[in-house]
Amino acid sequence: MERSKKVENSRRKFLKIASYAIGGTLAAGVAAPIVGLAVHPWLEETVYGTEDFINIGKLDDFPIGVPKKTTITSSKIDAWNIFEGLVMGSVWVVRREDNTLNVFSTNCPHLGCGIDWGADVNQFLCPCHGGVFDVNGRKISGPSPRDLYAFDTKIENNNVLVRYRKFA
Predict the structure, then answer these.
(1) CB within 8 A of 130, min separation 6: which ones?
(2) In the predicted model, what is the mean pLDDT of residues 66-87?
(3) Terminus of the chain with fewer CB atoms < 10 Å: N or C?
(4) How far is CA 65 from CA 25, 59, 135, 141, 152, in A?
(5) Number of structural domains the chain divides into
């Protein structure tokens, strides 16, 4: 009789441990995706774009010394679909006399407001908080913590190619 009590206690102990293990495994299986979704944004860089260079036009499309705002369009492949001509954003393109290019984001690094070219003062102007940048994208005044974001650029066969990134 005493032996059967001992067996009964060890069986109960085993079932208790097994049920905790199964319950813990199920709870972890449910919690892991939720934690992953919550943590994922912190692990990612806060820029969006492509590692590829995007053709934004011919070199002759950009006059020397005059900033020109250009829309960036690209394709997106999503499982079975290909979306052509999606607007990713826009850039300011400044062609210099030596035919090199400065390509800047159209958003102020302060809070992301859209910047405009002030032709009368030859400066980029942020209307939100008074940020001012020169034709080379350098901060002149205002609350912006840095110069305008510049993009990698290259010229191939008279085509202007930009590696576009959208800063969030």
Answers:
(1) 141, 142, 143
(2) 77
(3) N
(4) 65, 13, 8, 21, 19
(5) 2
More confident residue, 82 or 99: 99
90 plus 23 within the same structural domain: no
Q: Could you tell me the residue range of the domain that residue 98 belongs to? A: 48-167
pLDDT over 80 at 75, yes or no: no
Identify which has the larger pLDDT, 128 or 43. Answer: 128
What backbone torsions phi and psi does residue 80 show, to the nearest 5 degrees? -100, -10
- The span from the CA of 133 to the CA of 104, in Å, is 11
Dig out the tokens for 151 from the structure: 């993009």
Task: Find the mean pLDDT for residues 129-147.
Answer: 88
Q: List Cβ neighbours of 92 (8 Å cut-off, separation of 6 or more).
A: 67, 68, 69, 70, 103, 104, 105, 106, 115, 117, 124, 148
39 and 68 part of one domain: no
Cβ 131 vs Cβ 142: under 8 Å: yes
DSSP assigned state of 60:
G
How many whole angstroms separate alpha carbon 150 and alpha carbon 56? 15
Looking up tokens 């959208």, which residue turns up?
A: 166
